[in-house]
Amino acid sequence: MLARLFVIFGGLFVLVLCAALVVPYFIDWTSYRADFEREASVILGRKVTVKGDATARLLPFPSVTFSNVEVAGGPGGQPAMTVETFSMDAELAPFLRGELLIFDMRLVHPKGTIDVAADGTVDWAIRPSTPFDPGQIAIEKLTVTEGQIELRHAAGGRSHLISEINAAVSAKSLAGPWRMD
Fold first, then answer.
1. In angstroms, what is the C-alpha Rg of the chain?
2. Under 8 Å CB-to-CB from 151, ≥6 apart: which residues?
3. Which of 6, 65, 137, 166 is the most buried (most CB within 10 A)?
4. In terms of DSSP bridges, do strands 48-50 and 158-171 run parallel, antiparallel, or are they unpaired?
5. What is the Cα–Cα distance from 25 to 82, expressed in whole angstroms?
6. Rounded to two decimals, what is the model's pTM?
7. What is the C-alpha separation between 60 and 90, in angstroms, rounded?
């Protein structure tokens, strides 16, 4: 169950980032923040807001960094997810072939809320309408530092808090297999 939650949690951030990679790297991300937020919101089906800095570079490898990222949809109008710093480095050659090889992704202080409906449906399931083929996206290393997930179960009316999550995650593709340490 915990591994599946990490797959969902990590997959969400990968999808947000993949939206950013559709736009050429020479764009000033601070100026085009609204474009990124709009595309990421479409992919996730939830409003995404970058409240902090946004930077990107192409050489020596494609890299993006966002700070203070919020994903709407939480209880009482609160964010369903926040991340203090989200950054990613990718290989350029696979990107030019239509693939995405993320060799280093970092999530610092991510906090998320995951609702599990009475029938077991998870509200953060990856949307089937995503424009990305999960088989063409690989993650060599995803580092989560001081993460937190609140699981809310509708069937039992209970909540569980998983905190101090420090993990290294990898996946041959978003479709799996996934590995977590």
1. 16
2. 5, 114, 116, 159, 160, 161, 162
3. 137
4. unpaired
5. 24
6. 0.72
7. 10
